[in-house]
Amino acid sequence: MTFRPGQVGYGSNTIVDREPEPVYQDPLVASTYDPDGLQGLFAQDEIDWDDSSIWDSWNWVTLGVVDEDVAGPAWAGLSMGERKDWFNENRDSVEDLFEGRPVADFTMFSDDSPLATHYNNIRNQGAMGGTNIDYSYYQKDPLYQMAFGNIDWDAQDGLDAPNWNTPGGVTQEHLQFATMNIVNTFRAVRDDAYRDPWKGDLPDAITPVAMTTDYETPFAIPGIVKQLPKPVMSSNLQNVKARSGSNKEAQWNELKANTPDQQGFVDPNAST
């Protein structure tokens, strides 16, 4: 049925050819976002890990760019007069930072004053041009933490386990080795080359085989002698016993039967 414009139902039977639009795409997979360079390695067919040039242009995550606009002046290169002039020009921002003057006037402009130390610390957090590796990024990255935790560092020659609590305890070599393990694991799963132990092929059935040995007892084992029968009194001895009137055996049997059992342990503290 066709409806005319203005009628109820007009346009209800119109089919619109529209391409489906994805609602969500993982940016780590569907985009060029690749802060640590792993996506590029995942996509390669062959990787020669012995080629050290891989790391020459590697996209390590680096510390932010630090320049004088961020870190202030190079304090050690300024004369006392230049330091005072810089402070007077930036008095408001410095006093806001320290909630007043950092220290007394006679020590405020020294090389190790809180003012100089503050800006030196900012400079030490980065490198001019952002060339230093940001190890804190890899320390917090779950993928790298999983790699660090599953590598047998004792089996690695010349490379100790990473120590995040010691300056220099984590080096670029640690990151390279972790990156190699991450990529190899991903590629093994992708290429269906990884097998969980419980999903592996069952071993062949075991056929029992009688065990043999060449062991010999190193000493002679004496034979077991059979027990002799108990001695019995002959009829003559029994007659002699009866004529003698001996009844010690009967007395002993009667005494045994009339002797009560001994009392066992009794707790002296137990209530009766």
What's a concise summary of this model?
This protein has 11 helices and no strands. The protein is mainly α. Among the domains are: 27-61 and 133-190, no CATH class; 68-124, no CATH class.
Key features of this structure:
272 residues, mainly alpha, 11 helices, 36% helix
- Largest beta sheet, briefly? none
Order of helices and strands: HHHHHHHHHHH
Instruction: Give the low-confidence spans.
Output: 24-31, 126-130
Distance between the termini: 106 Å
Count of DSSP strands? 0
> In which range does the helix fraction lie?
25-40%
Total number of helical segments? Answer: 11
Shape annotation:
elongated
**Share of residues in strands:** under 5%
Rg from alpha-carbon coordinates: 47 Å
Q: What structural class do the secondary elements suggest? A: mainly alpha
What is this structure's SSE topology?
Blueprint: H1 27-30, H2 38-42, H3 68-71, H4 80-89, H5 91-98, H6 114-124, H7 135-140, H8 142-150, H9 172-190, H10 235-244, H11 248-258
Describe this entry's structure for a reader:
There is one protein chain. By secondary structure, this protein is mainly α. Among the domains are: 27-61 and 133-190, no CATH class; 68-124, no CATH class. It is built from eleven helices and no strands. The chain has helices at 27-30, 38-42, 68-71, 80-89, 91-98, 114-124, 135-140, 142-150, 172-190, 235-244, 248-258. Helix 8 (142-150) packs across helix 9. Residues 24-31 and 126-130 have low confidence and may be disordered.
